[in-house]
Automatic annotation (TrEMBL):
Pfam families: EF-hand_5 (PF13202). GO terms for molecular function: calcium ion binding. The keyword Plastid does not apply. InterPro entries: EF-hand-dom_pair (IPR011992), EF_Hand_1_Ca_BS (IPR018247), EF_hand_dom (IPR002048), EF_hand_pair_protein_CML-like (IPR039647). Keywords: Metal-binding, Repeat. PANTHER family: EF-HAND CALCIUM-BINDING DOMAIN CONTAINING PROTEIN (PTHR10891). Coiled coil: none annotated. SUPFAM superfamilies: EF-hand (SSF47473). This is EF-hand domain-containing protein. Residues 5-40, 94-129, 135-163 form the EF-hand domain. The keyword Metal-binding applies.
C-alpha cells in the first residue's frame, strides 16, 4: 500500500495531469500532457523524438488504465494511481526505460546533460505552470558538476516513481514535495 509520503509526492503531479480538475485522469489528460511536451524545442524539431514522447506518455495511460481501471470506465482517481505505484517496484526496468525519452526531450541543447535551467523546464512542464524549486537541483546534482548526466537522471527518475524514502533525492526530481525538506 502506498505511503502518505508517496501520496503527497504524487498529488501535485496528479493535479497537474488532471487538466479539467475533475479528480480523475482520463486518456485526454495524457494527450494534453503529450501536447505540452510537444512544445519543447527538441521535441518540436525532431519527429522521431516527438513520436517517442507521445508513445511514452500515451503508453503510461494505456498501462495505467489496463492495470488499475477495474470498472473499465476510462477514469483513474488518485487511489487508482497509488495502486499502480505499489506495482512499480516490480517494473523497475520499464520505469527506467522511460527516463531516456524524458531525458532526450528535456536536454534542449542535446549536449547529453540536463542543466539547472533544463531541469526547471522539466518541472514547469510537468506541473503545467512555473514552480519555485529552491535548492532542489543542488540536491539532485550529487556530484555537484552543475548537470545531471543520463545515468544520474535515470537513477533519480526511478527513485521518483518507486521510492518511499524521503531521503532519496530522486523523490524531488519533479519539484519540492509539500511539507517535506531534504535531510
Amino acid at each position: 500500500m502506498a505511503s502518505e509520503f508517496q501520496r503527497t509526492k504524487l498529488q501535485d503531479m496528479f493535479n497537474a495531469f488532471d487538466v479539467n480538475g475533475d479528480g480523475c485522469l482520463e486518456e485526454e489528460d495524457f494527450a494534453a500532457l503529450a501536447s505540452r511536451w510537444s512544445r519543447l524545442p527538441r521535441v518540436r524539431a525532431d519527429a522521431e523524438l516527438a513520436a517517442r514522447v507521445e508513445d511514452v506518455l500515451l503508453g503510461w495511460w494505456q498501462h495505467l488504465s489496463s492495470a488499475v481501471d477495474s470498472d473499465n470506465d476510462g477514469r483513474i482517481d488518485m487511489n487508482d494511481l497509488l495502486a499502480m505505484v505499489d506495482r512499480l517496484p516490480s517494473m523497475r526496468e520499464t520505469v527506467a526505460a522511460t527516463a531516456d525519452t524524458v531525458f532526450d526531450a528535456v536536454d534542449a541543447n542535446g549536449d547529453g546533460r540536463i542543466s539547472r535551467g533544463e531541469h526547471q523546464q522539466l518541472i514547469d512542464l510537468w506541473h503545467g505552470r512555473g514552480v519555485t524549486t529552491g535548492d532542489v537541483f543542488d540536491r539532485l546534482d550529487q556530484d555537484a558538476d552543475g548537470h545531471l548526466s543520463r545515468p544520474e537522471f535515470t537513477v533519480l527518475w526511478t527513485q521518483f516513481w518507486i521510492s518511499d524514502d524521503p531521503a532519496e533525492p530522486g523523490n524531488y526530481l519533479c519539484g519540492p514535495v509539500a511539507g517535506r525538506s531534504f535531510r
